[in-house]
Amino acid sequence: MKRFAATIRIAILGPAMVLGMNWAWSPAAVGGETRLKDICRLKGQEENTLQGLGVVVGLKGTGDGANFLPTLRSLAKVMTVLGEPTGKSGLTDLKDTKNVALVAVTATVPPGGARQGDKLDCVVSSIGSAKSLAGGRLFLTALVGPDRQNPRVFAFAEGAVSLDSPTTPTSGRVFQGCRLEEDFFNVFIKDHKITLVLDRHHADFQVAQDVAEAINSQLSFQTAGIPLAKALNQVNVEVLLPPQYRNDPVLFVSQVLALSIIEPQIVNRVVINERSGSIVISGDVEIGAVAVTHKNIVVDTAQPTGGKSFIPVDPAGRSTAKLKSLVEALNALNVPTEDVISIIKGIDRNGKLHAQLVIE
After folding, report:
1. What is the pLDDT along the chain (360 residues), one digit of tens a residue?
2. How far is residue 82's CA from residue 262's CA, in Å, rounded to a whole number?
3. Which DSSP string corresponds to 241-292?
């Protein structure tokens, strides 16, 4: 192998296995502008979950059975509502019931809310000892909103259950099975103020301050120079709604979200998906001087000393090593993917990975 003066050296102490590796390098964005709507959202404009407890009927003997009393009590309540209460013996009348299962039912309301008559998908998950929900049908179930102190029925769910996967027969979905009975509005104005929430990739004190300054410099003319925006922390920016927009807040919000700032320099990240074996490197991630020994591999990112036991793999001769070069070199040497991931983890634990490591 041809030798170069380099900053990353690898010693192979024995034969290496051959295994393909999927990885990608995402260069850091430089220059340009980005709109506020692309990096933040309005507080209050988020998904909400409606939920309830229901029963799935029509199963082929795969229900909870007579040993799970909550299901029997729920079935007895349903029968009472339908005008067919149990007899004097109570739950004993239902002891042979095997085609019913108690389930948790949830439906997700989108960030923009939902209106009366809208239909949403709902998810059903077995709570008891049911073996399968295949072939079942969700009996009419009331779904309440997220306010635990004042529960309010917003929707009813009903319909045939379709399994998500044959390997998980106790969970399924009712397509368009949830019907809204009331409008579900997401309030985004409080005390004549709106709050912008930066997404997790751009949550940063400097970015929040840049957003506030952009709003003040471009929109404060509407309030005779009085600042409209204030960065509360690295995530939230509070914006005052000018008096002239209090009857038309949507127009003001649209103006705010259309503003642009210089493309923020986000924190470099290395994202590893251990199941798929993928490694995604954002920006030009550097690694500090460190020596890692893993199985039959020794990685040394210090300055070369002229020793002949190492194979140099970064021909650029930079003063700092790049993670991209290390991954390329290990891949060229047919190093197994799991070993590459372990080496990156070891560099991170040592504090020498100059980026945020995300394990999925």
Report:
1. 333 333 455 554 544 333 334 556 555 544 588 999 999 999 988 889 999 998 898 888 888 777 766 776 777 777 666 665 665 555 665 666 778 888 999 999 998 889 999 999 999 999 888 889 999 999 889 999 888 788 889 999 999 999 988 888 999 999 999 999 999 888 899 999 999 999 988 889 999 999 999 999 999 888 788 899 999 999 999 999 999 998 999 999 999 999 999 888 777 888 888 888 888 887 678 888 877 776 777 777 665 555 444 445 454 545 567 888 888 878 777 888 888 888 888 888 888 888 888 888
2. 63
3. --GGGTT-HHHHHHHHHH-EEEPP-PPPEEEEETTTTEEEEES--EE-S-EE
The residue behind tokens 């692309």 is 38
Count Cα atoms within 13 angstroms, Cβ side, for 334. 6
Query: Which runs of E-coded beta strand occur in 145-228?
Result: 153-160, 162-165, 168-180, 193-198
Provide the residue type at 267 as one letter. V
> Which residue in the block uniquely carries the two structure tokens 């929707």?
155
Alpha-carbon distance of 21 to 338, in angstroms, equals 9
Query: At how many degrees (to 10) do helices 337-349 and 323-332 cross?
Result: 150
C-alpha to C-alpha distance for 261 and 246, rounded to whole angstroms: 26
Contact assessment for residue 274 and residue 359, using Cβ atoms and an 8 Å cutoff: yes
Q: What is the CA radius of gyration of the chain?
A: 29
* DSSP conformation class of 309: S
Q: 151: Cβ–Cβ under 8 A, 6 or more apart, which residues?
A: 144, 145
350 is written with which tokens?
A: 């040592």
115: helix, strand or coil: coil
Q: Tokens in use for 155?
A: 């929707």
